[in-house]
Amino acid sequence: MSSFPSSFFQALTEALGADAVQTGQAIAPRHHSDWSGAPPVQPLALVRPRSTAEVAAVLRLAHAQGVPVVPQGGLTGLAGAAVPHAQGIALSLERMNAIESVDAAAATLTVQAGATLQAVQEAAGAQGLLFGVDLGARGSCQIGGNLSTNAGGNGVLQFGMMREQCLGLEVVLADGTVLPMLRPMLKNNTGYDLKQLFIGAEGTLGVITRAVLRLHPAPAAKVTALVALADFEAALTLLGRLQQRFAGSVAAFELMWRDFVEASLKWQSLREPFDQPHAFVALVDVAGSDEAGLRAALEELLGEAMEAGLAQDAVIAQSQAQAGTLWKIREATAELPTHMHPPINFDVSLPLADIGRFAAQCRATFDARWPGHTAVFFGHVGDGNLHLSVDGATVDHDEAGVERIVYDKVAQFQGSVSAEHGIGTHKKPYLGASRTQEELAAMRAIKAALDPKGLMNPGKVLG
Amino acid sequence: MSSFPSSFFQALTEALGADAVQTGQAIAPRHHSDWSGAPPVQPLALVRPRSTAEVAAVLRLAHAQGVPVVPQGGLTGLAGAAVPHAQGIALSLERMNAIESVDAAAATLTVQAGATLQAVQEAAGAQGLLFGVDLGARGSCQIGGNLSTNAGGNGVLQFGMMREQCLGLEVVLADGTVLPMLRPMLKNNTGYDLKQLFIGAEGTLGVITRAVLRLHPAPAAKVTALVALADFEAALTLLGRLQQRFAGSVAAFELMWRDFVEASLKWQSLREPFDQPHAFVALVDVAGSDEAGLRAALEELLGEAMEAGLAQDAVIAQSQAQAGTLWKIREATAELPTHMHPPINFDVSLPLADIGRFAAQCRATFDARWPGHTAVFFGHVGDGNLHLSVDGATVDHDEAGVERIVYDKVAQFQGSVSAEHGIGTHKKPYLGASRTQEELAAMRAIKAALDPKGLMNPGKVLG
Questions:
Q1: Does DNA-binding count among this protein's keywords (chains A, B) (predicted)?
Q2: Are A58 and A4 in contact (CB under 8 A)?
Q3: Angle at A85 between CA A81 and CA A90, to 5 degrees
């Protein structure tokens, strides 16, 4: 089963204890893959260290022996970065799941990499504070994975991505060297900001073991509205007015194209939110301390937008339950795997002004090649982030063909092939659409400098 | 005068034209140093390229010849990073000063590195937008230098430092390779976020030539208050309440210790702002769209704080002129060189909760060693950033002794020896107080990977 020399296996067991090292059939199958749908791979061993010192011991041993190491968090990634290496060890952070401290006055939280996003959110909430990142996998995904993939999600418009939440990071390098960059400060101009390299590196430069995260005051009130719009330009104008009026407090601006709204209503048996269908529907959240004032200001802004012909129609939720009903339309994404056969999903980023044209051109190209195809367009448009899902059954299951169309257009519009999900193995073939050869060469030089033997998550991202 | 081979000098002149290459006495003395007070150095040549292609040509030639290159922006740095190398060339970006475009809908601005901060602020303002970084040297400092030092300043509490304003960056590496990472997107998870390395690297990894910057809606209103406080803990509590009530809109929270207020009033012949002296005074700005509402909310919050004994006294400016008068107390920093002989200045960062203790311990240590010394404490305390200035004449001109006291204490409190000014040459001896040997080794490995001949701003930061 194992091609390790027995001395290596013995040294691992001695360093971590027998219960922290598993091999072969003893490794739970959930460690063989992630949510990307990539084919499962059984690693030679799964190790589950309990501390940074144990992570360092594992990496020192693997480095001496030349064994590849694949870090694993909650295994909810969509790009395949956590899929094991058949000749390597999978290093799970799941036992390092402590919230070590919350400093309410400074609004910071120190956490081990294996804590779930939800645990961090709850620890912040217990102090009247908010953690700025939220996403659907919150109960399973782990902070180390969120950092390693620079996760986005629902809060980016207001608070930025994981990178913006991270004040400090403890990292173990490929050779076992620990970089304890955990000083909880907003400002620290002392040489290169090394932690930035590991955020979004998908485990290819080292293992993230602990982090100091920034928290925000939890808003006392949030008001939700659904706005009907005739075209993409109107959506952009509305977004600009919202950000002007509610500077720093626009918590969501999710845009749904008609195809998405129609599919969502059908799949979930919901009623049309407006008297008639509209080309675009925007879901808006604004946050603040005074609910009545917030609602009045939003009513005024949307009233003006309707009078000016900018908005076609609008509804403001009068309760949290009503807000939930409006959000339900957007949450149809959970239904995609049930209703598309299978969905071919994209997570692209584009210059804000080009998103409307990009979507229209993608649709026209699909239409020409696969008349009657099904595709839905939606996304965190306030962040420049468009998601689209194409029903594989309606495009001859030509996933590569659809990807080529989308990513060629991303390259043409100077966009990104991955806004928030990362590269892993899944998007590696298309990295060149968003990065020049010179940029990739610089990344490889950095990889070689920090991981000269190429043992950290080999074959992922740069490959 | 020059130790270049004449062929190198000729090649430079051929590539850039004679008017872009100066040597010896023809180099204006202002290019010999920066605002750090470091001793001036005359470089072998000053080159002033007009384009990224010309910057690349200079670096290719210097790389082939093994000539050190020191990039220069507005020369307002306080750490000495832009001081020339006697055997190298100074590369000034001053001719690359175009604001290339402003995209008001997307709130982004594309700019060449040599544009001044003020030019960027004005270009944003012309579109009803705001650039999030502001600092005293705005009319002279250049965007490339602001990025290379990850500048901070007055807007950090609300908008973050330069790093947070930068969506894209064009960089020329030591060998002349251009990395055109200018895609203007908020979300772009495609491999390592290379631009983060160059931000704050003080020109030691390459030359920043262009950037895409993020803009914000310009707030329609801003209200300023001055609040008297009995102790540091009260200041922290007040800050927390402000951030809770005005989430995302607290634009300034500048704390001044009594020593600073007293010196400021004396130096500028200003009146005491309150009926009696207080241990601490906080200057607060809140921004928003509705001035009357903002003022009413701030009045309510400060009224409650006074009733609860949290604040000792408070005054809210009723006009922009009154706000200017309140701000004048904080702006005494411009008077430091006149009234201290000379000032020994610090820019340190500490965990928020420790700033009060840190300041008290520094003062006690100074007092024990130099009874009757003069020192003033102030800073962007909302960011964890404390400035302090000690009058050299009152501490036997023992600059090294004062530095040792302050930086030892920074190390003890796990703080940063440079919050926003950078390392340059000035703080190099103290880098070890904020960074471990392992962290410095990782930085050197990255430097070697991107600049194997060590020609980019040699001797700065890592040395």
A1: no
A2: no
A3: 80
Could you give phi then psi for residue A95, rounded to 5 degrees?
A: -80, -15
Q: Is B308 exposed, middle or buried (0-12, 13-18, 19+ CB in 10 A)?
A: exposed
Query: How far is the alpha carbon of B88 from chain A, nearest alpha carbon, in Å?
Result: 22
Distance (Å) of CA A192 to CA A110, A180, A209, B151: 22, 14, 20, 14
Contact (Cβ atoms closer than 8 angstroms) between residue A63 and residue A174: yes
- 3-state DSSP helix/strand/coil % of chain B, to nearest 5: 40, 20, 40
**How many residue pairs bridge chain A and chain B with CB atoms within 8 Å of each other?**
271
* pLDDT above 60 for B373: yes
Nearest to A349 among B178, B187, B244 (CB): B187
What is the percent of chain B with per-residue pLDDT over 90, rounded to a whole number? 87
Cβ–Cβ under 8 Å, residues A100 and A107: no
Contact B113, A363 (CB under 8 A): no
Residue-wise pLDDT tens digits, B376-411: 999 998 889 999 999 999 999 999 999 999 999 999
Compute how many other C-beta atoms are within 10 angstroms of the C-beta atom of residue B438.
14
Instruction: Encode B349-362: b = buried (16+ Cβ within 10 Å), e = exposed.
Output: bbbbbbbbebbeeb
- φ and ψ at A346, to 5 degrees? -130, 150
Residue A1 has pLDDT above 50, yes or no: no
Instruction: Say if strands A207-217 and A129-131 run parallel, antiparallel, or are unpaired.
Output: antiparallel
Strand locations in A83-125 (E): 89-92, 99-103, 108-112
Q: Running DSSP on this structure, what letter comes out for residue B415? A: -
Look at residue A32 in the predicted model and tell me its pLDDT: 97
Indicate the residue type of A91: L
Domain ranges in chain A are 6-92, 99-217, 221-333, 340-422
CATH number for domain A221-333, candidates 2.60.120.260, 1.10.20.140, 3.30.70.2190, 3.40.50.300:
3.30.70.2190
Using the Cβ of B355 and the Cβ atoms of chain A, whether some distance falls under 8 Å is answered with no
Please indicate whether the domains covering B221-333 and B340-438 agree at the CATH topology level: yes
ipTM above 0.90, yes or no: yes
Enter the CATH code of domain A99-217. Answer: 3.30.465.10
Q: Please answer yes or no on whether A192 and B152 come within 8 Å at the CB atom.
A: no
- B6-92 belongs to CATH 3.30.43.10: yes
Per-residue confidence (pLDDT) for residue B3, from 0 to 100 = 59
pLDDT value of residue A71: 98
- Position B334 scores a pLDDT of 84
- Is residue A41's pLDDT more than 80? yes
Answer for the pair A55, A171: CB distance below 8 angstroms, yes or no: no
Q: Band the pLDDT of B6: cuts 50, 70, 90.
A: confident
Closest CA of chain A from B354, distance in Å? 10
Min Cα separation B115/chain A (Å): 23
Dihedral angle computed from the Cα positions of residues A445, A447, A451 and A455, in that order, rounded to the nearest 10 degrees: -120
CATH number of B340-438: 3.30.70.2740
Q: B89-92 and B45-47: which strand pairing? A: parallel
pLDDT digits (tens, 9 = 90+) for A393-416: 999 999 999 999 999 999 999 999
* CATH number listed for the domain at residues A340-422: 3.30.70.2740
Element (H, E) at B166: strand B166-172
Interface of B with A in 197-236 (CB under 8 A): 197, 199-201, 205, 216-217, 219, 236
CA–CA min distance B211, chain A (Å): 15
For B174-212, how does the pLDDT look when each residue is reduced to its tens digit (9 = 90+)?
Answer: 999 999 999 888 899 999 999 999 999 999 999 999 999
What is the per-residue pLDDT for B99?
Answer: 98
A279: its two tokens: 């080309």
